[in-house]
Specification:
With 233 residues, this protein is mainly alpha-helical. 65% of the residues lie in helices and 6% in strands. β2 and β3 form a beta hairpin. The strands form three sheets. A two-stranded antiparallel sheet has the order 1-4. Strands 2-3 form a two-stranded antiparallel ribbon.
């Protein structure tokens, strides 16, 4: 049974969002083209990153909790991670947009983003020798800078609320992956390549990694939505 743990985590992650996607109020499943576009483009970037970091030993996978099916030297379950997690988080984002009409952090979206850009850029340079820390922080700062300069979106406040809400399932899912609630970790990390600061068992870098994963998915998804609306007039 242990060899199915990572696979079961993927199924658990997407199961409720997938079932709720057919709710006629949110109509999440009707936006499948934007979802597929965001997940595909972002997934390609993160898979390449994942393959490279696995090869040089920044992180790796415990075969005890894997089915043993590998694609380009990555477990099948890891490929599924970049489908199930973004899907679930984008569902949370869209459900929140439907049920919470007030843009609570609307005016704070850009200030929060600029602060993140500055802090992550400085920390990324300071800890450049730590591959996971340096690259994750710098890439996130760079993409956020691209967002505010080039895209200039009006959804940043809502994105950060969605990110905060997504942090709850993040703690559960990533907690299990990194060894919470089970005897050993499913995904191990080389502490020489990170800050060795953990949220429970989760490397602090994972929270920024998730931020980048989500903002890339949602920015592409929102671009598709705006383009689709424009073509309907």
């Amino acid at each position: 049974m242990e060899k199915y743990y990572y696979l079961l985590i993927n199924i658990f992650t997407i199961s409720i969002p997938l079932m709720k996607s057919f709710d006629h109020r949110v109509r999440f499943i009707s936006r499948w083209k934007g979802l597929l576009l965001g997940i595909s483009i972002t997934g390609l970037v993160f898979i390449i990153w994942d393959i490279a970091f696995t090869k040089i030993g920044v992180w790796g996978f415990n075969p005890t909790y894997l089915t043993g099916i590998n694609i380009v030297n990555l477990p099948l379950e890891e490929w599924l991670f970049f489908i199930t997690v973004p899907y679930a988080c984008m569902f949370i984002y869209e459900a929140m947009n439907y049920y919470v009409k007030t843009d609570i952090l609307g005016k704070m979206g850009y200030p929060i983003t600029y602060i993140l850009i500055i802090v992550l850029f400085i920390l990324g340079l300071i800890f450049l020798d730590n591959w996971y820390t340096g690259l994750t922080f710098l890439l996130t700062a760079g993409y956020l800078l691209f967002i505010v300069i080039k895209i200039k979106p009006n959804y940043l406040g809502r994105f950060y609320i969605g990110y905060i809400i997504s942090f709850i399932p993040f703690l559960l899912v990533n907690g299990i992956l990194t060894g919470s609630f089970i005897p050993n970790e499913i995904v191990w990390y080389n502490n020489n390549e990170n800050l060795s600061i953990r949220i429970f068992t989760i490397p602090i870098e994972d929270s920024i990694y998730m931020l980048l994963l989500l903002i890339m998915n949602i920015s592409i998804y929102e671009w598709w939505k705006s383009r689709n609306k424009a073509t309907t007039f």
